[in-house]
Amino acid sequence: TASSPPPPQAREILSAAATALNSDETDDNQLPLPAHSVIRLIQCPRCSLPLRTPLRLPCGNTVCKSCLPPIRQRTGITYPANDERKEGFTCYWGGKDTCSGEHCLGDCGTDVLLSKLVDVFEEVLANRGATPDTVDPDAGFSLTWRSSLESTPMNARIGCDLLGGVYDLVKQGRFDYNASDVGYAPEDSVQQGVGQSFGRLREAVRNELDCQVCYSLILDPLTTCCGHTFCRGCVAMVLDHSDLCPLCRRKLNMSSTVRSEPINNRVSELVEALFPAQIGTRREGYTEDATREDKERTIPLFVSSLSFPTMPTFLHIFEPRYRTMIQRVMRSRDKKFGMVMYNRSGRLQQGLGRAQFMQYGTVLLVERFELLPDGRSLVIASGVSRFKVISFEMLDGYHVGRIQRVDDIPISEEERQESLETSTTSELPSPSVDAASTAPERLPTQQLFQIALDFVEKNRREGATWLHQRVLLAYGEAPTDPALFPWWFASVLPLWEDEKYHLLSTTSVRERLKMVVRWVRKSESREWYLSPSTGVFTSFTPFSMSVSISFGSAPSPASDGRHRAQNEESEAYIPQTLVLGIFLALFATQMAINVVQIRRARRREP
Known about the structure:
single chain; zinc; 16% strand; 16 strands; alpha+beta; transmembrane helix; Archaeosine Trna-guanine Transglycosylase, Chain: A, domain 4; five-stranded mixed barrel; Herpes Virus-1; 19 helices; transmembrane; PUA-like_sf
């Protein structure tokens, strides 16, 4: 998991907690670290007061809402075009650790969990420190420290409750976040000075630290843009099924970056400091689960054609090895398999050599499975995610690959790239300049998307066959989300698969839209018809391969060479509507046959 290294204060806290964990003392009421280090867990690093409406920043740090840097309008960004992303600021931690330096205000949600924890500290520790009216000046503890704001050492009498006394100093603004050389007197009575405060605080805090997905002590806390905090692994699991927050149902734009997002540093430090033994046990169990999950990052590969995330794939399976494969997939818990296209040109690929298939593919989830009486099957699956094959082996005639997930960069990085490309060009395109003559790299992301939409609408008016009603019935209308549009466009556009394949390795929406615009321009100039191809050409890619090579036995090197030689002399184009019509007709016919067989069986019953 990715997270920023802890600051010096956090390292002090975690070191003390580790010492307590390795010691033989297990008294829950015994303070495992200095009192000021405990209070610092809920202290703002800017104003040094207890956090007020704490905001979790995208870099993992936390400040009071009132302590945010000056807000300004963001320029040069058109995607995502949300109102909440139009404002931003320069972070205090810019250039350090994992902080990019620039944050969008929309990514800074109120930290709900930390707000509750601050309230717990207030409830348990308020009014437990020294007061002039109730405490003998010579009684209790004396605290000395060196402030980062003062040149002379500071001191204060804090009463008999260490935690309560330090907390009161923080509330008064007298004890700053970066205080150093902190000392307590008398030192031999420090643990007695904790009293029952730490035990009550620890118990009250523990009640708030259960993840609302797994209901266990929160591990690697990840705070969403809506302000809710869960285990990182739990967020990843939720996003495999939905893009909504489990609590407030707000849309989460982190499905592709959840494993690289910085954790919530403040909550993580608090858990590690107050519950070192419990979190150690929890982490050991999670490590075992992660190891098991890593072993499961193998997936059966269907070597056929191109499939894309969020798009349907239609398969007619009759080859014995793939019958076996799909039966095992249907018996598995997740019902997923990988789709990869043939390496028709015998391209040399890193780690795979001249493997029969291309390195990048799409994970498919089986949504509809129809087993025919003779063992064949009709399958409808949808794309879930992309992957890169690291290695592979053969199992009962089909390939099984060890894969690495391919994710997009964070939205913040997407925005940074657009701003950089459109603002640093020496000659930016003016509104009067035709976008057709402008390089895609110089165009805003939203304009790239609009060019593609205009192209689709133009071809629809002209009655393009690749936008036939049957095609739209299978793939749906053109998406209005720029993140989804390239996958849809590649699924319906009659373009060589070798061109479309490059989409699978991209890691940003902007890069994919730039590729789409290049396709649009090639289409309008008919350049792609001059491009060489090594296979049957059809835009209905999932079924095209059943016509050519994918559902038969794998070709031998000799037959594959003859096949490529024949293709060099002539290329075939199969109309998309015809292929789709054939598939739907087969599916409907088989369903009708099944109904007839059921009726006949019922008639024979006495």
